[in-house]
Amino acid sequence: MPDLFETRLSRRWRVLLVACTLATVAPMLLIPQPALTSAGRFAAIALAVCQVAVVWWMDRRPLVVTLVSLFVGATPELMHLQLGPGVALIVLTTLSWLRPARISLWGLGAAVALFTAALGATDRWLPALLWSGAAALAWSWGALGRARSARRESEARRMVLQERARITRELHDVLAHTVSLMVLQAAAANDVFDTHPAKAKLAIEAVEEVGRQALDEVRRLLGVIGDDRDHSASSPDLDDLDRLAETISKAGVEVTVHRHGSIDVASVVAESAYRIVQESLTNVLRHAGAKQADVDIRVVGGQLAVTITDTGGGGDRHDHGGGRGLDGMRQRTTQLGGRLEAGPAPDGGFRVAAWLPAHGHR
Q1: Which terminus of the chain has a lower count of CB atoms within 10 Å, N or C?
Q2: Helix count and strand count (H, E) for the chain
Q3: Residue of 324, 66, 23, 71 whose CA lies nearest to 173
């Protein structure tokens, strides 16, 4: 995969970089150089100032700045003014952190070539070898920092995409369930509006109740997106299944919830189980033509087993129009390390069964 990660230096970092470069050069200029004339000393100071000043533009043209700094830093060696490779190591480290290897390796190659040429011209081959090794280490240090920064950014991007997918699933579940119920209740109210006004009123009240529940859940999701920690609507869990069953029953499908033993599971597991039941019952309303549905919940062998069966026509009616119904349920189970089965029940109808780790696992 190509390296597209781009690092930029803030103004504060550039000030710090210039300060470090100045601190590296200043002590060397203060060391007495008996063989250096006044003109030579002035030239050395000018070269050092240039080497420090050019670092300020490291953020905009890092490779050009590195090459200029290396060339300016090698010149005093030809004048027998030993300033050391400190600045070169700083700019090399910064270059390999700011740019990918295909660019920063040019800086490393230039550093080795200039060190070898400048020190070799004065018959100092051992320092040339040591400086070249130090340049390689400086480049490696910057490249390691770049790799770590890229890894952190990639992980942050992956988490954002995961959260976006999760919120999309949540909105789908809430809206699909709510709209289905509201359409069915509104249709029922319209059918009996003239002949049975009392029943029509009950259906309209059910529409209002479902709408309020949907608004609460949408506010909660928007609160998560906005990082609003004061929103009062909490995530649904297994305790809310009775209210869900009552809502579905008012829409025409009698739902019974069976709980077996103590059910103590992680909150993320409880919410996923609730959404699976909600999506399954919504599919029953929209496609099954069933009059009855059963929800069975139990913890077996460290897993939460959730089974939803209905008395509808069975078949592949749950996989409707390429929607997100079964796909969303499978995503929930696999993300937690569980599994899901869906298909016609042996005695007719349709069956959805999910097994989720009770304490959650990603």
Answers
A1: N
A2: 10, 5
A3: 324
CB burial readout 22-45, b (16+ within 10 A) else e: bebbeebbeeebeebeeeeeebbe
In the predicted structure, residue 2 carries a pLDDT above the cut 50 = no
pLDDT value, residue 27: 64
Dihedral angle, C-alpha 11, 12, 17, 20, nearest 10 °: 150
pLDDT at 297 over 90: yes
What band does 323 get if pLDDT is binned at 50, 70 and 90? very low
| Chain centroid, CA 361 distance in Å | 18
Cβ neighbourhood burial of 325 (10 Å; 0-12, 13-18, 19+) = buried
Total Cβ atoms within 10 A of residue 329: 25
Closest CA to 141 of 173, 74, 96: 96
pLDDT at 4: 46
Instruction: Name the pairing type of β-strands 292-300 and 350-357.
Output: unpaired
Q: Cα–Cα distance between 118 and 120 in angstroms, integer?
A: 6
Using DSSP bridges, classify how beta strands 292-300 and 303-310 pair: parallel, antiparallel or unpaired.
Answer: antiparallel
Nearest to residue 325, comparing CAs of 217, 207, 180? 180
Distance in angstroms (rounded) separating the CA atoms of residues 206 and 251: 8
Q: Which residue has the tokens 């597991």?
A: 269
CA distance 173 to 274: 10
pTM of whole model > 0.70? no
Residue 30: predicted pLDDT: 66
* CA dihedral angle for residue 278, residue 284, residue 287, residue 291, rounded to 10 degrees: -150
HSE of 132, CA atoms in CB hemisphere, 13 A? 17
What are the pLDDT digits (tens) for 120-135?
776 777 877 887 888 8
Order the strands of the 292-300 sheet from edge to edge: 254-260, 292-300, 303-310, 350-357, 339-344
pLDDT beyond 70 at 255: yes
- Helices 125-192 & 267-283, crossing angle to 10 degrees? 40
74-93 mean pLDDT: 70
Q: Taking a C-beta distance cutoff of 8 angstroms, is the pair 181, 251 a contact?
A: yes
Residue with tokens 């000018």: 46
Q: What is the pLDDT of residue 343?
A: 86
